[in-house]
Amino acid sequence: MKDNVIFKVYKYFLPSAWKRYKGYFVIRLLRLIVNTITPFVPILMMPRIVDELLGNRDVNRLITYVLVIILSEYVLGILNGLFGNILERYSLKFENHYTSLMSARIMEVDFQLTEDKKALDQIELAKNGMSWYSGGLNGIVEPLFNMATALFTVAGVVVIIAGQAPLILLITLVLLVLSAALNKRMNEIEQKQYADLSKINRVFSYMGWELTDFRYGKDIRLYGAKEMMLNKWRNYSDMFVGMWGDLSHKLISLRLLLMIVDVIRDFGIYFYVGVLAIFGKITIGVTTQMFTAAGTFYNSMRNLVMGYQDLYKRANYANEYVKFMDYPAAIQKGTKPVGEGPHTFEFKNMSFSYPGSDVEVLKNINLTLTPGEHLSIVGLNGAGKTTLVKLLCRLYDPTEGAIYMDGVDIREYDYEQYMNVFAPVFQDFKLFAFSMKENVLIQDESTPEHEREVAEVLDKVGLTEKLATLSKGMDTYVFKHFEEDGIEPSGGEQQKIAIARALHKNAPVVILDEPTAALDPMAEYEIYRQFNDLVDERTAIYISHRLSSCQFCDRIAVFSDKEIKEYGTHAELVNKKNGIYAEMFAAQAQYYQV
Ligand code: ADP
Predict the structure, then answer these.
(1) Minimum-distance ligand 1 atom for the alpha carbon of 390
(2) pLDDT band at 64 (very low <50, low <70, confident <90, very high)
């Protein structure tokens, strides 16, 4: 089981890392050689110096020995530092690389997962798991090389010790088993704590970063939310500090035991080697050699065991990243290519409940949308209008029944190609803190041709006058995150930019899901009417609870109580006796006439 995680993580990271960063592995190998040689310089030279001092006292020889020690330690030390620097730089590169891969994955996971608590927790675990908890790729590769270094060093010192004072090996091994067991326990405690901390970290990043975003500013001030925020922050902060406190409390007695084990080992070895020396079994030079070699043997064996434990721990953290990157898809994806439009859509006996909820939001929907048709969906808040559009765009899959495009279940189509069929503007659309042009194009490189296209759609939605007032025109940044002179567009202007983006996508089906809710009814009517002219031949779906915006549509579907209660043209529905539409229309007509 243990090896599985290490194996799995290595299998995931190493092949691509080797391809991309060969230099890193070469430097790791060179550092392995340097680190393996380093401890042997004093082990091999010290007994010669001591025996020379007690014997012939040849000054030239002594100077040579000392020079060998000093020079080789100096050179090896420099190389080690140099390699360490290079590896650190690689480590930063890895961090950027794997973070960007993860961001890309976050943006492409099934939309449904962005509302799924388990998936959100997994993202947090993955972020932390791949950064400081595991040390990233460098962090999971390093222990392997440390273990290899330790293994070679152990082999060397065993040869040196076995011939002179073999009991050292036994004493060291027995006490090493004890300290390894203590270490294992410490790692287990740390890891358990890590899982609990991830939730708190998520809360912290919400409070610390997102809430300081000035767009929350208005609500926080006007509702006096500061106290609530700070109190929540304090509570979580107390929990956080408490957890770290608990952790160090649990670890302290184990650390003490570890120190005792070390003392017993040192005592045993000094006693044994001392006895050998007193009885003349080994020379004084060899005695010093045995002390140094025993230390190296112990450290290397410890590095070997701890390297393994460290690797196991880091692999587990990094595995959280692997788990997220391989997170199971929430919806089924087909391979069928999407043909050229125009398309016909059909909802057949379709029902839907949101994942994790038993409440049916839509019930037995049957509806057909023919090519070029302009359909208006109306109904009270919460009637399921937006949900229907989300299902059509495949942000969710139906719970029962199905949706068909050109007679084929939409689940069978290639997902990305299918997504390209739609240009929706949702109620909660978001503009990016990039330039207006980039917001429309959704790409950061543009040609003069692109700029003409953008100018054209911005003109169509009525932003030309606004553009004329901006010194940087369409290159003006939306919001001030990146640029001091970014603009803070009004609600209506933001909607216009979002609509321009939808128009520019030039998709066969456009959807307006009440993006105009912030506007007054007349302005909304105007935008819908203009939009209707702009989308022209394309299929269009309009959602609004203001009926004035439906009149120019071919068909109207009235949603109420999870179902389509009425369906027909404006003329048919408006005169229907006791009809929902007729009643709503009459009620709204009191407030404004169009
Ligand atoms: P409408 O667009 O007609 O106002 P919606 O389609 O947004 O209605 O919502 C229909 C119902 O589904 C509402 O009761 C709403 O609370 C519920 N709902 C909407 N989104 C979710 C969600 N992500 N998870 C669970 N329930 C949801």
Answers:
(1) 6
(2) very high
Q: Is 195 exposed, middle or buried, given 0-12, 13-18 or 19+ CB atoms closer than 10 A?
A: exposed
Check if 354 has its Cβ closer than 6 Å to any atom of ligand 1. Answer: yes
Looking at the 3D structure of the chain, how many domains does it have? 3
Q: For residue 128, give the 3-state DSSP assignment.
A: helix
The CATH number of the domain where 236 resides is what?
Answer: 1.20.1560.10
Q: Is residue 3 over pLDDT 60?
A: no
> Which of 66-69's residues contact partners 24+ apart within 8 Å by CB, and which partners?
68/41, 69/41, 69/42, 69/45
**Percentages of the chain per state (helix, strand, coil), in multiples of 5:** 65, 10, 25
DSSP sequence for 98-121: HHHHHHHHHHHS-GGGGG-HHHHH
- Cα–Cα distances (Å) from 400 to 155, 261, 391, 403, in that order, read 66, 65, 12, 10
Domain region containing 476: 432-488
Cα 136 to averaged position of ligand 1 atoms, centre (Å):
40
**Residues with Cβ < 8 Å from 493, sequence gap 6 or more?**
463, 466
How far is Cα 149 from Cα 31, in angstroms, rounded to an integer? Answer: 9
Residue 495 lies in a domain: no
- pLDDT tens digits for range 519-533: 666 767 777 777 778
Establish whether residue 471 lines the binding site of ligand 1, counting it when its CB lies within 6 angstroms of any ligand atom: no
Alpha-helical regions (H) of 372-444: 385-392, 415-419, 436-441
Q: Looking at 442, 461, 488, which one is the last position of a domain?
A: 488
CA 200 to chain centre: 17
d(CA 354, CA 387): 9
Answer yes or no: is the C-beta of 358 below 6 A from any ligand 1 atom: no
Q: Is 387 in the pocket of ligand 1 (CB under 6 A)?
A: yes
Position 371 in a domain:
yes
- The pTM (predicted TM-score) of the whole model is 0.70
Q: pLDDT tens across 170-183, in order?
A: 999 999 899 888 98
CB count, 10 Å around CB of 352? 21
Q: Are residues 318 and 411 in the same domain?
A: no
pLDDT at 197 over 80: no
Q: Is residue 81 part of a domain?
A: yes
